[in-house]
Amino acid sequence: MTCPDPADLMQPFSVDIDLQQGLMPNAASHLTRHASDMRGHYADTDALARLIDSGDPLHYEVFEVPVPAQAGQWMYCISTLQPGRVGDEFFMTKGHYHTLAETAEIYLCLRGEGYMLMKTAGGQCAWQAMTRGKMVYVPPYWAHRSVNTHEGEPLVSFCVYPGDAGHNYGNIEREGFPRRVFLRGGEIVIE
Ligand code: S6P
Ligand code: ZN
After folding, report:
1. Percentage of the chain modeled with pLDDT above 70
2. Which domains does the chain have, with CATH numbers?
């Protein structure tokens, strides 16, 4: 193994994570998505329009300290998804494939309750429950979307994925997911 010139080496670093609140206080990047960013993703478009008109609430946040988007690096973030529903459908993230579709991802749930919905371009669909301490492995080629089914708590996850994975939202906007998560008669249903 040859080590690069010291001047070219990235230096070790650390960040603070508030595990309970789902915040990274010193994050270099803080992405927020509101109801108005979710057009086209929910089954009940009228309910989404009403939600946007009634104050356009926060849906989710992603806190990152970006690392170089290169093979060999690990990108990581805190993803915090608020509780709520659009009509009968629970709040969820947009969902994406990775641009490098052959890259996997790990989600460690830190707080809350929900599901990770996953699908492949070939028509397979799967889901895993998310609760504190559950680690969900999203294999290569699976698009992934998290859903918060708790009535009052955010769904907080720590995510880690290859630095060069990238996000491909376009295919999900065209295809959608074959399953959705609803509250029907007081029960959580995936249909
Ligand atoms: C990144 C990872 C998460 C999501 C975040 C928001 O690969 O899967 O950080 O970006 O949960 O979801 P989305 O689908 O809007 O990127
Ligand atoms: Zn991802």
Report:
1. 100
2. 22-190 (2.60.120.10)
